[in-house]
Design goal:
The complex is a heterodimer of chains A (164) and B (83).
Chain A (H helix, E strand, L loop, with lengths): L5 E4 L5 H15 L5 E8 L3 E2 L2 E10 L1 H18 L4 E7 L1 E4 L3 E9 L2 H18 L2 E7 L2 E5 L9 H11 L2
Chain B lengths: L1 E6 L1 H7 L3 E5 L6 H11 L11 E4 L2 E3 L10 E5 L8
Parallel strand pairs in B: 1-5
Antiparallel strand pairs in B: 1-2, 3-4, 3-5
The chains are: A alpha+beta (164), B alpha+beta (83).
């Protein structure tokens, strides 16, 4: 059974199936895949000096997948030879578990690195996914950016972080 | 007309509701739905500057007009995170 390239899931995440999927697609599409760049976001044991017990991720799932599709489209426009897979986990996650996996493929490494970094920056900016941290001494929602997919300044920031 | 409101994360927590119905005049905007909701739940008001929204599972501006039966989702700032 084939797996989706872009997904929100309650199941544990795995890098290898996404890497294999992109490699096979790259081969099928033409030039082939010479580079796979992977980012894995992991639940950290501390936040601002507080000890983390566990996290809960919540998503507006259909819109999150649409946000991933939008990011994939932006990558297609910016790095036409690159392709990206994004899986984000929701529900309760313990310290050390993967919360998000991004895999980018391209013919060569420069594009794969750039597309991978761009994808995770954009996920953090626009995907309707929320993180609730539970500490040994309380809890807090982590709130970063107002999700504004058409904000060109945010997009430019993601691009500049990707292309160092 | 009546729209279905969906609330997430902290907005869900402060209202104690993940979904509710909201009656607004014909031709109302998303912003008007938000204001109606804030009248019901005063605790939402501080989120007005940072909230974003979706109509029928697509991102939409607060100025977008809503129609009877639409699903209007309000989204607090997303998780972001230090890079």
């Amino acid at each position: 059974m084939s797996i989706p390239r872009l997904a929100v899931t309650r199941e544990p995440l795995a890098v290898e199936p996404l890497a294999a999927l992109l490699e096979a697609e790259g081969r099928a599409l033409g030039e082939g895949c010479g580079a796979l760049c992977t980012f894995v976001g992991v639940v950290r044991a501390t936040h601002a000096g507080r000890r983390v017990r566990y996290l809960e991720y919540e998503a507006f799932e259909p819109l999150a997948v649409k946000a991933f599709e939008r990011i994939a489209g932006e990558i297609d426009a910016e790095w036409p030879a690159a392709r990206v897979a994004i899986h984000h986990r929701i529900g309760r996650l313990d310290v050390g578990q993967a919360s998000v996996v991004v895999v980018a493929s391209a013919a060569h490494r420069a594009e794969a690195f750039e597309a991978c970094r761009y994808a995770i920056e954009r996920v953090k900016q626009i995907a309707p996914i929320w993180k609730h941290e539970f500490f040994t001494d309380g809890d807090a929602w982590v709130e970063g950016a107002t999700a504004a997919p058409d904000d060109e300044a945010a997009r430019g920031e993601a691009r500049s972080r990707a292309c160092v | 007309m009546r729209v279905k409101v969906q609330l997430f994360a902290r907005l869900r927590e402060v209202t104690g509701q993940s979904e509710c119905d909201c009656d607004v005049p014909d031709g109302a905007s998303v912003a008007a739905v938000w204001q109606a909701l804030c009248r019901r739940h005063a605790a939402l008001a501080p989120f007005g500057r940072s909230v974003s929204c979706a109509v029928n599972e697509d991102f939409a501006p607060m100025s977008a007009a809503v129609r009877d039966g639409d699903a209007v989702a309000f989204l607090p700032p997303v998780s972001g995170g230090a890079c």
